[in-house]
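mind reviewing both lines:
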Amino acid sequence: MCNCILLGPPGAGKGTQAKILTKRFGIPQISTGDILRAAVKEQTPMGIQAKKFMDEGALVPDSVVIGIVEERLVKPDCSSGFILDGFPRNVEQADALKQVLLRTGKSIEHVISISVDKEELLSRITGRRTCRSCGKGYHIAFDPPEVPDRCGECGGELYQRDDDREETIRKRLEVYEEQTAPLITYYGQESLLRNVQGTGSIEDIQSEIVGIVEGKGRNT
């Protein structure tokens, strides 16, 4: 069984590595954004509550987010394991998750923290470009289009999303340091933390994470 949490700042590659683990181990990637939208669409009890806040333009409170996570963790496809991608986001959510896991008879085996230098993160994220027409993504350094500023799929104009601008990214990194980074200490004290450097090839990072999950990697 593989019950994991992936931690890391924006641009660290959590989503990419979660998808690789999902394919390798046949377990679901659980992202709070995805399951929140799914719960609203399915009109689950927590989804109905969440929609009320969303319709008012308010943030969905932690109590509802935790409830939606619990609804997701008891689904049959989580019986062999799951990957929590970007959740919990703070110590309060981690405490609440611990209670959810006790109620559902589950436990976390690994908390994998992907570390990347701040300037590297800025380079990764600010280099992203998106097609206005079809939504395909590019990167000006790592995956550039054949024709500058034009999508290779549909010929649409490429642009930089507001979320990918440097000033926005710096603010998001500050929020991460304030709220989420303390989780590294939290899970370190519980002997669950596994540190991975998020620089290098996707394959090398994948190999280290898989080694940890399979019990072949380092544990600190």
